[in-house]
């Protein structure tokens, strides 16, 4: 998990946080420069997190395969675990934690919001596909 924050952050659970996830198609997500993200971190005291969850390509082919087909629930479990850890470590609290994802990440955020609505204050689903059970490969 990549956790980005300003070095003046207080670990009191009162910070706004955005948790991003994708977890599919063997694609590795890594931090990159973003002006809007920098503004969120610097001027709003926010925390931006990229979850390295099974299904993605962050740790090789086996990692990717552990989030495919009948193991898709692993992807959702990993993302939920990332959110729980952010709360446990007092980066944020549920009402200040937003999650977002696009495409496969849209599916991810929608499912996690349904499975654990108590864990998130906001959910942004970008172009999620929701008929994935009919796909041959995901």
Automatic annotation (TrEMBL):
GO cellular component, one term: cytosol
Keyword Nuclease: no
Protease listed as a keyword: yes
EC number: 3.4.21.-
Family matches, as PANTHER family: PROLYL ENDOPEPTIDASE
Family classification: Belongs to the peptidase S9A family.
Record-given protein name: Prolyl endopeptidase
Annotated source species: Meloidogyne incognita (Southern root-knot nematode worm)
